[in-house]
Amino acid sequence: MILLLAKIIVVVVALLHIYFLWLEMFAWTTKAKKVFRNFPEELFEPTKTLAANQGLYNGFLAAGLIWSLLIQDALWQVYVALFFLGCVAVAGVYGAITASKKIFTVQALPALMGILLFLLHHLA
Q1: H or E segment at 18?
Q2: pLDDT at residue 124 in the model
Q3: Alpha-helix residue ranges (DSSP H) falling in 27-108
Q4: What is the Cα–Cα distance from 109 to 112, expressed in whole angstroms?
Q5: Mean pLDDT of residues grouped by 10 in the chain (124 residues)?
Q6: 47 phi and psi angles, rounded to 5 deg
Q7: How many other C-beta atoms lie within 10 A of the C-beta of residue 68?
Q8: Which of 16, 68, 106, 107 is spaced 20 to 30 Å from 93 by Cα?
Q9: What are the residue boundaries of the structural domains of the chain, listed by start?
Q10: Residue 104 and residue 70: Cα distance in Å, rounded?
C-alpha cells in the first residue's frame, strides 16, 4: 500500500512538471500571467526564452519520474524515482528560499512526501 501511494505521488509530481513545462514553454505570455501574478507584467515578453528553457528542465524532471515507473527492476525503479524526486525537492527548496515560499508547498513538499513513502516502504 505504501509503495502504491509513493508511485501515485510520482505520477502527481510528474503531471505537475508537465504542467510547468507547458506553462513556461508555451503559455508564458498568456496563462502564466494569471498564475505568476507577482511577476511584473512587462517582464513576461523579455523573459520568454528564459522561461522556455526553465520549462524544458521541468520536462526532463517529468520524463525521469515517468521513466522510473516503467523500470522493471523494483530496486532500480525506487532508486531512479528517489533521484528525480530528490532533484524536484532540492529545486523546490531553492525556489522557496530565492523566489516564493509557495514553491515549497507546490513543488518540494509532494516530492518530499514521495521520498518519505519510498523510504518507509523500504524499511517495511
Answers
A1: helix 2-26
A2: 79
A3: 31-35, 48-70, 74-98, 102-103
A4: 5
A5: 97 98 98 93 97 98 98 96 98 96 96 98 88
A6: -105, 15
A7: 21
A8: 68
A9: 2-123
A10: 27
